[in-house]
Structure formats: C-alpha cells, structure tokens
Amino acid sequence: MALTYERMSHPLTPALNALLLLADPSQRLIDGYLPTSTAYVANDRQGLAGVLVLQRQSDLVVEVKNVAVLPAKQRRGYGQALVEFALQWAIEHGYRTVRIATGTTSLGQLYPYQKCGLRIVRVEPDYFTTHYSQAITENGLPLRDRLILERTISLPQLPIN
Fold first, then answer.
1. Is 161 within a domain?
2. Secondary structure (3-state) at 160
C-alpha cells in the first residue's frame, strides 16, 4: 500500500467534507477547526483514500483533529499510515508531542493509535454529550466520554564534537 499526500485545498469538496464527517459528525466543529489547521488528502492508486487534519496547539504540541479513511478502504492499514504520516510531519515541523482525541467507544481507532505509540493520558467525561447537539451511538454503545492520547517525540541525541 503506497499513499501519496497533498495539502487539502479550499473550498472543501463535498466528497472531502463527507469524509471528514465520518470521523467527526459535527459540521459546526469541523468548520471551526479546519481554517486554523493543516489538512492533507491521502490517495492510493485508485484515488482518494483518506484525510488528515493537524492543528497546532502550542509550539511543541500538534493535535490530529480529524483522521478518516473511506469505508471501502478501511481495515487495510490506511488509518495507521495516516497517523504515521502525522508523526513524521510533526517531527519535520519541530513538534515534540502529537495528540489525538477519540471516543471511548471508538474501538477500531484505538488499536492503530496505540500501535503507533500513542498512549491514553486522560479521559474527558461527558465530552460528547456536552459538545455535540445529537446523541452519538458507536459500536452499539452511547458515546459519552473522550479519550486523549499522546505520543512524545524524542529525537536521537547527536554526538558532541
């Protein structure tokens, strides 16, 4: 599987917007973070595969605000590839922590995030019932709480001459 990445251009196409809504069902929140973020479209040989949105939180912290893979291309490693791209991008842009938030019922997403070295650092109780106007059900469970995962990026120490 080889993905190519290109910066997302504006205005947002309906197909890309629909893809973003797979990972975040709030158009209001997407419209809020997208203008202040860096977004990439991931393509495979057949075309659109996924999308990734990164937002600076501080000089040292970048957050993955949205990562989504087309349903027909899920469970093929694309999500993990997008997260790995985010980690490499963070290194190249001088960040030392990559953060991602997801729901406690997002069982399919937790595996690739943790496989990429992200660890749960906190739980935000009732986040989804407070910030989303409609109830969300995922994997047959009501989504209430949000998990914050982070990975600290450590650079290799260079020998001092």
1. no
2. coil
